[in-house]
Design goal:
The protein is about 10% helix and about 40% strand. The protein is mainly β and about 425 residues long. The protein has a single domain (about 1-180, about 195-430), classed as YVTN repeat-like/Quinoprotein amine dehydrogenase (Methylamine Dehydrogenase, Chain H), CATH 2.130.10.10. The strands form 7 sheets. It has a 5-stranded mixed sheet with strand order 12-16-15-14-13, with no helix packed on it. A 4-stranded antiparallel sheet has the order 3-2-1-29, with no helix packed on it. The chain has a 4-stranded antiparallel sheet with strand order 4-5-6-7, with no helix packed on it. Strand 18 (about 275-280) and strand 19 form a beta hairpin. The radius of gyration is 20 Å and the shape is globular.
Length: about 425
């Protein structure tokens, strides 16, 4: 009965979201979808030593153009210390925002519904490593019904890339750990290629197909290392993920392992109930990959397009799919560009637009109504550029379907806030 309920909830969520032009597409299909103008941007921000209080913080930007404080920071909550703030995600009821630290493995839970303009830190999970059995680096916090599924990046034995998924209740109670399949312990999964490296990064679900997908990155001893130094270490550069795993959603059991070389990062799945596929991009090889279900009911992973010139290592870092499944935004950190691909034929993505956002760019988030696109700058504290290229910002653009037009920007260094990483949207209408 529980399995059927999960599937029904997922299908209802997808059917509710699909008729709209656009939505906050990286989020879970189990969550409430609201179209229209977002009121707030919640920015999970890395603290910088000697800048302000030096701590990681959740920064709230007023995003409603009818407001007197439009485009300005209206609230901030410091969490104490620098934890390598990275990703965040709402619970399925959107009342709480979970935000993780890749260095300390702490998880911070913010109440965003009592007063959406002023989120409040209500809980800190500081025993994640112990409770999970050694998982380090909580990355994606992804909503399932009444649950948060969290992808890890590393482990506390060798701080390499082998890791697991960890499940919690919405209240912050530990439930279970699901280790990634490896060559020496496939846990019932089948390798479709050569590798099962056990690495992790992102997680996404397609409830109507009863599957989850995970991607892979690298361990703590790499992501907490200076990027220039790391790139000169050939042995360390071999220690990046080259797989994706397809899981049974209900059983949390790995089923298939795909070879996807080059560190596949963010996963974005199609919204149309007739589109049985997801996309990812590979950081080191600069390619778009398609993971799809064929007419015979078999899953495949296939490289379908280059992103810029892969030889120049543009380092694609984030992607965002429009909810009509026709276009895909891709940001590339090294050249600071946002690229838009036509994916109406998912097997042949074609770049149709690009714009330089800054000296460096990381995350991209689309507004609920598809009329605005937001970008943030920071990748990792030790990977961000140095000197004048260390731009730290959130930039908002209007989008008319053809051109990005600047709306506002917030300089996070000038305002002594730190390094802005991931953005999430808030709205009063969610809680009325």
């Amino acid at each position: 009965m529980l399995s059927r309920l999960y599937l029904i909830l997922g299908m209802l969520a997808i059917s509710a979201a699909f008729p709209t032009l656009a939505d906050e597409t990286p989020l879970s299909p189990y969550m409430q979808k609201i179209v229209g103008q977002e009121d707030f941007i919640y920015v999970w921000t890395l603290g910088m030593e000697g800048l302000g209080d030096g701590s990681d913080k959740l920064v709230t930007i007023d995003a409603n153009p009818k407001s007197e404080t439009y485009g300005k920071v209206i609230h901030k909550v410091s969490v104490g210390g620098r934890n390598e703030a990275h990703h965040s995600g709402f619970t399925d009821d959107r009342k709480y925002l979970w935000a993780g630290g890749l260095d300390t493995s702490k998880i911070f839970i913010f109440d965003v519904h009592t007063n959406p303009a002023k989120p409040k830190l209500v809980k800190v999970i500081d025993d994640f490593v112990v409770k999970s059995g050694g998982v380090v680096g909580p990355h994606t916090t992804y909503a399932l019904p009444g649950r948060m599924i969290i992808s890890g990046l590393s482990n506390n034995k060798d701080y390499g890339g082998r890791t697991a998924l960890v499940e919690y209740t919405n209240e912050g109670d530990y439930v279970s750990t699901y280790w990634m399949p490896t060559d020496d312990n496939l846990q019932g999964a089948t390798k479709t290629g050569k590798f099962a490296d056990g690495y992790g990064y992102d997680v996404r679900a397609l409830p109507r197909l009863d599957i989850m997908l995970t991607s892979s990155f690298t361990g703590r001893r790499n992501y907490m290392r200076d990027l220039g130094e790391l790139m000169q270490d050939q042995q360390a550069m071999q220690q990046f993920g080259k797989t994706m795993v397809l899981w049974d959603l209900q059983d949390r059991r790995p089923k298939l392992v795909f070879d996807v070389p080059g560190a596949p990062l963010e996963i974005r799945c199609a919204w149309d109930p007739n589109h049985n596929y997801c996309f990812t991009s590979t950081a080191l090889t600069a390619k778009i990959w398609l993971i799809y279900l064929d007419d015979q009911g078999k899953w495949h992973a296939q490289a379908v397009a280059d992103i810029g010139n892969p030889k120049e290592i543009p380092l694609p870092v984030d992607i965002s799919i429009e909810s009509d499944d026709k276009r895909l935004w891709v940001t590339t950190f090294m050249d600071g560009k946002a690229r838009l691909f036509d994916i109406s034929n998912p097997f042949k993505p074609k770049e149709i637009y690009n714009k330089k956002i800054g000296a460096q760019v990381n995350m991209v988030s689309q507004s609920w109504d598809g009329k605005r696109v937001y970008f943030s700058s920071s990748l990792l504290s030790k990977w961000d550029k140095k000197g004048k290229d260390n731009e730290q910002y959130v930039k908002a653009f209007g989008w008319n379907g053809e051109t990005l037009t600047p709306l506002f920007q917030v300089d996070f260094i000038k305002q002594k806030l730190g390094r802005p990483h991931q953005m999430r949207f808030g709205a009063y209408a969610l809680y009325r």
